[in-house]
Amino acid sequence: FMHMFQSSWSDFADFEKIFVRIKNTISEYVMQHWKEDFMFGYQFLNGCNPVMIQKCTKLPDKFPVTHEMVSVSLERELTLEQEIEAGNVYIADYEVLDGISPNSTDPCTLQYLTAPICLLYKTAQNKILPIAIQLGQTPGEDNPIFLPTDGQYDWLLAKIWVRSADFQYHQNITHLLRTHLMTEVFAIAMYRQLSAVHPVYKLLIPHIRFTIAINTKAREQLICECGIFDKANATGGGGHIQLIQKAVKSLTFRSLCFPDIIQARGVDNKEELPTYFYRDDGYRVWEATKSFVSDVVHIYYASDEMVQEDEEIQAFIKDACSFGMQDL
Question: Do the beta carbons of residue 108 and residue 185 sit within 8 Å?
Fold first, then answer.
């Protein structure tokens, strides 16, 4: 992949080269439809990073979209404000990318980052469509709001920049931080504090057996200086470090609990968002895991007092909080 593209894209046909080795019905479909608004909206629900979309209950001041701007995109003969009140408007905000230094390790190929805000609308057919995009966090003449009524390539480029920001968020926060690095916090604490015969060790070990190994490989080849991130990503060259440090400051344990974060984003209602399969599948995995783990844990712990008296568990939690998360 790296050898195919030493510099920027030069043609839309270049994208086809990516799919040479992964031909299947889904990749073919995406190649045919990626420029269309319905596919762009659908990816917020079931694409690589289905964790950004949230119910819009009030337009933020930094994103001054008016009814006149988007009226042509609305279907229900309601004003934008009424659509928001009716629960038909969603938003994706990449504020965490604001101020992150873009990759400048190769002076011949300068790279760029945006911190966009995207407004999404649920149609009468339950499709999620983009209706307004602002590529920066501070509104103004040099930071216009792009609309589907703009020129074909202005609108397409605005969507590409949102997708680019989504990629940076997914790679650095959803994937690297919230899966690899967070799991390592608990893996290290487990190996330090729980004996191999402890029931919680036995519950955790299948999930974190290879965590430390793969993360070591990532630190050696992927996120290190001159690694793949530095060569290929707009957040390489130190931006990825800034981004993860920023994201950790607002990370909560509660946000790692699937139902809580789905509810916090206001996307838990199946009738309102019937095609959000990430949510539906996620709930099933969560419930199956919770049911199994609860059954096992209740064999060993009959009360909260028994948990408090388990020195290994208490040391495990303290290790994760105080050393892993630095008491954040």
Answer: no
**Would you say 175 is a known binding-site residue?**
yes
Rounded Cα gap, residues 89 and 79, in angstroms = 11
Angle, vertex CA 94, rays to CA 122 and CA 185, nearest 5: 115
* Cross-strand partners of 217: none
Query: Among candidates 74, 105, 81, 48, which has minimal Cα distance to 224?
Result: 105
What phi and psi, each to the nearest 5 degrees, are found at residue 143? -140, 70
Half-sphere exposure of 33 (CA within 13 A, CB side): 13
For 251-274, what is each residue's pLDDT tens digit? 999 999 999 999 999 999 999 999
Q: How far apart are CA 185 and CA 189, in angstroms?
A: 6
Q: Which two tokens stand for residue 200?
A: 């919680």
Q: Which of 251, 271, 274 is nearest to 261 (CA)?
A: 251
CA nearest to 161, candidates 151, 146, 176, 148: 146
How many Å apart are CA 76 and CA 227, to the nearest integer? Answer: 50
Convert the pLDDT of each residue in 319-328 to its tens digit. 999 999 988 7
